[in-house]
Specification:
Four copies of one chain form a homotetramer.
Chain A: E1 2-6, H1 13-22, E2 31-35, H2 39-56, E3 61-65, H3 68-72, E4 77-80, H4 86-99, H5 109-133, E5 138-141, H6 146-156, E6 160-163, H7 167-179, E7 186-193, E8 196-204, E9 207-208, H8 210-220, H9 226-231, E10 234-235, H10 240-243, H11 245-251, H12 260-275, H13 287-290, H14 295-307, E11 312-319, E12 332-340, E13 343-346, H15 354-376, H16 379-388, H17 395-408
Parallel strand pairs in A: 1-2, 1-4, 2-3, 4-5, 5-6
Antiparallel strand pairs in A: 7-8, 7-12, 8-9, 8-10, 11-12, 12-13
Helix pairs in contact in A: 1-2, 1-14, 4-5, 4-12, 4-17, 5-6, 5-15, 6-15, 7-8, 15-16, 16-17
């Protein structure tokens, strides 16, 4: 079994390697191939990976190459961790919208749109190579914005893939913990889009305990809990960017505020220094502060479900395909699927609860326009997408904002200049 | 043939009477019955109505009564012009949101929501009386917010009705005029919700002239025309409240700004003085400044299409019933229908254009929540509705805003206090 | 205005010419161009056409050519009357199924399937020429099986077209006549497939008179009226082939039975002799016995609705496009449409009545398989189509039947041999 | 845990008891309560059940009562094995249609319709009692026609239930065995209605091996394999009643033919004699010849999936709920569901393959009409149902057939006489 890590020079790679080590028995990788455009990082990460596997005493061959097509030869799974534009682009995504009084975030709002516009062409190019070199391989995507990437891959990729996000699993586990409930005895209905998902119903031992779960989650949120009580559903934490956008923007105006990208850039520099240490044979403590905890678990679970034909329920980013009413068949959604050897099969959901329906539909329209803008390289569609975004108040704001965002991205988006 | 005017003391009544006079041959009303809760206005309007009909030499019997059920006896058509709370409530609708930096408007945004919450119970009470007293009569509704009222009537009314708005017809005629096109040779695709409609395609002699039409409409709009060019569709003018909300709010902060309700209140006072003049035998010139031009034409056209089984295409507020994808069957939409003796039958539209889809779906969710809030008398649903509205930025704004709006409406909404 | 008649040597042509003469004021044809592969018939029909128009004193130029592409140059409307295989193929269609105890009919059952397999390639070839030579022209199709042809054109034709059948209009008029009702005051819901349509509801002056209408139609049918009473809807007369198939087959076993094709072949021979008479200047009395009465009226009505942008309701063969639940978007249905300068727009119908739903869906599946079989030239799909047909009892019957049908059609269906 | 067996006097009961014994560890039943209207059989079966459990050394309390409501008190699971009218009614179902040249079968065709009409009222009465006495209990239904019963329960039952049939699992296992494939490594797409299901796609280790599977199944079928090859899908064996109906009817005309009901009646008499033997402590060998093998396994699997919240994929009879296109939301289908503590959740399937779509839709319409006929007690709807059935050739056959069927069922169907 060969696993290729696209963007293998990522600071997340040791997290994945750690996960592979823990699941080796069920998922015995023969070759782990790292590929990246950054030769230095690739070298560092390949070294640490080798040391980690050696320490674990596992017979995994670690290879590395800058040649993506060669990397893909014979691949069974391809795992994407790429970040087009790196932390600098992310900092733009987070800083520029704030100037206009709009949430600056890596995956949500105008920042997420820019990340999508930079990333979709790279992911479709990868898919193109996979179609030719390893058409039966599975792409296990973790690159953000994961939902939008999933829609692009689903409509234009022509490959087998699973779009992931560790968020829903982690948040659901936390909710159940707050309820004192055993996950094996609980059933949580989850629906929405990536970073726009909702736990709409929580059952424990077949009893509806949604109200209690909402109360517990509301208190956990550190914001006025009344809204969640009224909503009657538990949003992903990213929803604070919508429901409490004023607070989020205010916070960024506090003195000393640094964006997440700015913080991570610093952490990553230190991480890479540590990774390069030939004595290091495990993921360092500092990696926790990088975020993305639980990520390897979700990625490995998907690969296991495919490889062992488990038919296991997992919340993934999949094309709707008629599972949710009021959204097109070819729109991606974040939804419970049965994952097996033939992929992720959405469980029929039905109509969205009315209180969250409009927001999900509005953001979906923005996402689909963004995919179209990226695929066609169209500034016009990009503007339609931005104007369709619920966080954008008006044309008067959107017009200069898009100008500035595209200008800042001209190195990574050819049609932006 | 008996036509009942519910809210017959409205300042619009002479507009309707004028329309009836012009179409008398096709629509020979035997009895025109005015009913209103305001006895003084009822008296004044009945007097003017009689004089206008007398001058026209038409044998129409004009009756009036405060007893609605008696008014409905033997009715063929019931026409609603009621305004619950009158101009004072409207001024609240327009003034209060502005304090929070939000568009204040009679039918759009938080103001429209309040109008709906005040009006839906009155319309459903009327429907209840009609079911019992004149179950075969048609309600021709002009009371705003017309789309939300249509949804409430369609889901809970149990009567025959047509929901009207003169906006689309007037705006389409203006667009065609700008193109120099004969309406009889043009085809315009119109879709959306009430006061949230769009001309998505314009054909003249079978040729697609949408781009030209967009250009002409954009210039007519008196706002930066670039957005409409990019959008590629012609929004109803009410859409300025969404796409250019900042400008709209700014304008209201100019010194000397008066809301439309404040202006109309003054005009209405003068109108009523003129109406009371026993010499007046036609609608006065001042009525034009009251607005609603073209209203009688649309109302009469609907009655004619029904009475003469015309099978004529008209843009009305109807339950979707599967005509538009991505919206529920029981949601009201503003759509081309074939209107005949058995009612308004939507012409299948299909999927909404992506650039306008999200906004329409988001506003629809708000509207449906508003209907539910009104029917159940639920403050919780009212808050869900307000938070679902695309013009509301956050919970932190919505919470005090709803408090203030409900407090101001406690005379008209029993559960508001 | 130029009108091309594809299959202009048809014995129906004088019917069309007669219709054109009657509507000349509204539809002033400049050139009427007849094209046909049969030079003799073309000559005869062109002659009669010229004499009829001359007698009417109308300045219509009558042209004829065997070169279809040349005929199409400058065309506004193209009218198809072709019959691939002529009466001999029809007689096969009617005779062969009877040997297997199955209804033999020109458009229904295995016969109709053969007619579709012969005709679809010819119609798609015509469409191909139209796309290149006269892409803005409208094809007004009357060639049977009209519904299946409409589906093939709608999915693969890439041209503007209206699929017609005079049946529903004629049958509805007859039903209303039986009720003593004025068509202008009646509303009849009609739905189904071509030659498989149903009047599901009959209103007169807004009152539901379906039960009376069913009773009247049942008596008219000359078969045990109980079934129609129980069904509660009025089927097209072709439905006798399904509901009373045994009687239909029995009748064909009576001594002296001749199929309709055999009768028509004889009538046509005589018709052509009469047509050739240089004294003949109008359609002869005998043409009535040929059938297709009312056909010109329906064809002219469609052309008028397009040309004059009437927005008139007409029952035509159109792609479903979501108008009827339970059938695919790209399946053709026989449905009320609004016909204007931009084509036929289905009025949303909703779910099919349960009592007729299954039969319509089953026949639709057969029809769609037939289209696929014709387009792919696939014997396998043809067998799937035949087995999907509700009149086919089993594989043991279908297998030899298809063999024999294909053998008899090997001159007209290349892949049949 | 309390399990109630409704129809506990069934000859199948020992099969269920045997399954419970084998799964006792996972499904530790405390009380097994048998209820039946036939006191003698109840006594016999309770005795054998006690002896079987005693022999297995399991501490299960076996109770019995003719009072259904008492039986339901405290129930966790209710299992239905009832057969309204017993074997005599079944023999009628199988014999009468044959007189008219139509397949006589317990669940398919006119026989199945009669069984549904007899059984639905009894099942809805059971559901009514469950709603009151044990609203949280699950009905695990095995009573045929299982799909039609599921639709009746889903629309009118108001209880939690799972509709079962052991057919799909058994047939799929056989197909995989023929392929030499390990079920754990295979994925089989199954869709349709009860006794009208199809394996539409067979994957082994992620490779599409449908063609091979079709070939293997075709040979297994003992009928001309060509049809299945052409169809390209593997039908349930019950489909022989449709695709090869002539052969099935012929077979029944062979000398010495006995219907399955006639055979089973004899076997059951002998079985009951054996069951009464106080020495018998296990299910007798003869039970195999009774049929229904694998039944306990499927029933126990459903109970385990619910009790242990497994989220396991099982093929069950469930309301469609939008999982399959072209069928109503409230129609039952035989479909892969995820079964957990909150019930059976259909996995979205999408459109039916065209080659099988029409038949499934036609039979579904018949089934839904049958449910309506049973619920309303309507002879008219019963006739519409029969006429909608694809095995019924015409009104001329259906009319006397329904008369005779209803007459034969007048003891069990109140409105039949």
């Amino acid at each position: 079994m060969k696993l290729v890590v696209f963007g293998g020079g990522s600071s997340y790679t040791p997290e994945l390697v750690d996960g592979l080590i823990r699941c080796y028995e069920e998922l015995p990788v023969d070759e782990l191939c790292l590929t990246d455009t950054n030769a230095t990082r690739l070298e560092v990460l390949a070294g640490l990976t080798r040391r980690m596997l050696a320490k674990a005493g596992l017979p995994v061959r670690v290879t590395m190459t800058a040649d993506r097509r060669r990397a893909l030869e014979g691949a069974d799974f391809v795992h994407s961790l790429i970040r087009v534009g790196g932390m600098d682009a992310r900092i733009n995504d987070e800083r520029i919208p704030l100037k206009y009084g709009i949430v600056g975030q890596e995956t949500t709002g105008p920042g997420g749109m820019m990340k999508a516009l930079r990333t979709i062409p790279a992911m479709l190019a990868l898919a193109g190579d996979m179609r030719e070199v390893c058409p039966e391989a599975w792409l296990i995507n973790y690159t953000n914005p994961s939902g939008i990437i999933a829609e692009a891959l689903g409509r234009y990729g022509g490959i087998r893939f699973i779009g992931l996000c560790s968020g829903p699993k982690g948040w659901i586990e936390r909710i159940l913990q707050l309820l004192g409930a055993d996950p094996a005895r609980a059933n949580v209905d989850w629906i929405g889009l990536n970073h726009l998902g909702f736990a709409t119903r929580v059952y424990v031992d077949g009893q509806d305990r949604t109200a209690e779960a909402v109360e517990a989650a509301a208190k956990e949120w550190n914001i006025d809990p009344d809204w969640m009580r009224i909503l009657g559903a538990i949003p992903s934490t990213y929803l604070a960017n919508y429901y409490h956008r004023g607070l989020v923007v205010e916070k960024s105006r506090e003195p000393g505020f640094r964006t997440r990208g700015e913080q991570v850039k610093e952490i990553e520099a230190e991480l890479l220094r540590q990774y390069a240490d030939p004595e290091l044979v495990q993921k360092p403590e500092l990696l926790r502060r990088r975020g993305g905890g639980g990520y390897a678990e979700v990625a490995v679970a998907a690969m296991l479900a495919i490889r062992h034909n488990k038919g296991e329920r997992q919340i993934v980013q999949a094309l709707n395909g008629g599972a949710v009413d009021g959204l097109p068949e070819d729109a991606s959604v974040e939804i419970s699927c049965v994952v097996d050897r033939t992929g992720a099969h959405p469980i029929r959901y039905g109509p969205l609860p009315l209180a969250i329906r409009g927001l999900i539909q509005a953001v979906k329209a923005y996402e689909s326009l963004t995919v179209q803008a990226a695929v066609e390289g169209s500034r016009r569609l990009a503007m339609q997408a931005l104007m369709a975004h619920p966080l954008i108040p008006s044309w008067e704001v959107a017009k200069p904002l898009l100008e500035e965002l595209l200008a800042a991205n001209r190195h990574w988006i050819p049609w932006a200049s």
